[in-house]
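Long-time lurker, first post.

We've been arguing in lab meeting about whether flavin mononucleotide would sit comfortably in this protein at all. Half the group thinks yes, half thinks no, and nobody has a model to point at. So I'm putting the question to the forum: if I give you the sequence and the SMILES, can you give me back a predicted structure of the complex? Inputs are below. Any interpretation is welcome too.
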Amino acid sequence: MSTLEAILADLAIPVVGAPMAGAAGGRLAAAISAGGGLGLVGVGNVATVDQVRAEVGLVAESGERFGVGLMCWSLPANPALLDAALESGPAVVSLSFGDPRPYLPAARAAGAVVVAQVGTRTEALEALDAGVDGLVVRGSEGGGHGRGVVSTLPLLQQVLDLTDRPVLVGGGVATARGLAAVLAAGASAAWVGTPFAASAESLFRPELKAAVIGADTDQTVYTRAFDIAQRFDWPTIYGGRALVNGFTEQWAHRTEALEEAVTDELTATMKQARVDADLSLAPVYAGESAGLVDRPRTAAEVLDGFASFREYLRAAQRWLVD
Ligand SMILES: Cc1cc2nc3c(=O)[nH]c(=O)nc-3n(C[C@H](O)[C@H](O)[C@H](O)COP(=O)(O)O)c2cc1C
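Top reply:
Settle the argument with this. Predicted structure of the protein with flavin mononucleotide, as tokens:
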């Protein structure tokens, strides 16, 4: 088993592709790892064992080092997802959105190091206490699910002072400037979702990729409304950041009323809207950095966009005068 430090030190570009259910399958993870980062496959709450085997199998076949990311709250109902995710030997396992403790022994026995995404100082302390190998600070500007309470930079500064274990950082890091900023602060690598969700190798449908590319930084919203409409059992402290649409305009900030108003018909209509890519209704999970994604790119091109981070670190050295 390599340490997390050693895995991150091996990267040509200190960028980890975030596990993203519905976007980060084996093809994307393999492309990110081949391009000099580290790709993670996202395992969602509605995944099946066969799907996980197929996606993880794809990246394992590529021969690249890779990771997987699971949602702890959903594993008690479907523990076989963890076994399927571990079968092909991921180097890194992300155990987020719930208590990682029950799953640490199996991940370690499979030879993986374990990270957990945290969205508050308290969650960081809990994850450190649970014994994870590293933390992923995940600010509220990030895409997809997470906490919606503290943004990336304040949380990063707080968490870096709590631990000597590696700290990765997700939520709004989408350019070489952003990567340089978090590395200069003391992060070990960036944890990037939204730009890869829109990339060629992502499982996102073309309509969703186009919507992310077309959106600006102020066109996302953090809400539980989509989970309520689909009657997903996400713990209520977690919402998700998605592009604004007709549905969010009506319900994003009226989730208590939506809990009352949700019907079987709405649940079925929302699920069908996802199948049909009807983006007036269906969620397109993406963070504020959607506004920094302005054209179709491959995963390798996304990584190339980060590659000049050293220029910004060098420019900042002008402050090293006495
Ligand atoms: C489409 C999408 C799906 C996501 N799915 C997951 C997931 O399955 N598991 C997980 O741990 N995080 C998931 N996330 C959150 C990411 O791990 C990460 O925190 C986030 O993308 C980082 O912020 P950024 O989008 O600004 O780069 C998802 C994010 C997106 C955009």
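For your lab meeting: The longest strand covers residues 66-71. The two ends are 43 Å apart (CA to CA). Whichever side wins, do check it experimentally.
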